[in-house]
Specification:
Number of helices: 10
Helix content: 55-70%
Structural class: alpha+beta
Order of helices and strands: HHEHEEEHHHHHHH
Radius of gyration: 21 Å
Strand order of the largest sheet: 1-2-4-3
Oligomer: single chain
Shape: globular
Amino acid sequence: GTGGAALGLVLGVVFAGGSYWFSDRLAIRSARAVEVTEAQMPRYHAIVRDLCQRADLPMPRLYVAPDPQPNAFATGRSPQHAAVCVNRGILDVLTWEELQGVLAHEMSHVRNRDILISSVAASVAMGITFLARMAMWGAMFGGGGRDRNDNPLGTLVLAILAPIAATFLQLALSRNREYEADRRGAKLLGTGEPLARALEKLDRGTQLVAGRVDPAQSTAYIANPFAGQRGMLARWGSSHPPMADRIARLRSGAWQH
């Protein structure tokens, strides 16, 4: 009934809020990452500290995950509660200059508060899905009070398509935030070349090495952990823009505008 559906919506919003509030703990635990000290990885700390000074951000906690896939992510509900994590695989394939480009991208996510934006988008998508489901059940089992001019078939089609549209809009927003993090990261360094070279290597690496990633956390990574999927549906259904487009933008100087 409507009471149960409303309770489901409330619980969904609570879970979405919890995912936002505890985003750093959830993501780090999911990646099985371990925090590293400055004594353990001085260059890693030095690069991030320099980026924080340039961007006027507090120093985040730094982690390394055992995943052999070359990838990285940033998380946290605010710059004061941020965490940056690199996979062991990315340390094996990138130079320190290229890693600096990746970390500039990740710190731009922190600066842009993209975890908050993605959480709001997820909640909006959830709300649209809830309303669509209510409309669907109303069209199928509604009472006699329904307007005779209503078209039940049209309502059912709308109820099916609305959640799909909401999901695609959510994914489009995620792709837009990746482009923006690329742009701000390049601007932070004054060049897009280190990140462009890094993305070329990550594009190859993520296709060759399968990521051990919870699908719920995949949008946080700089490169799509499931990049091996092909086809138009995979492209439009991806949370990340095509690597070729990102690299071309970085090398064209579009990030300067």
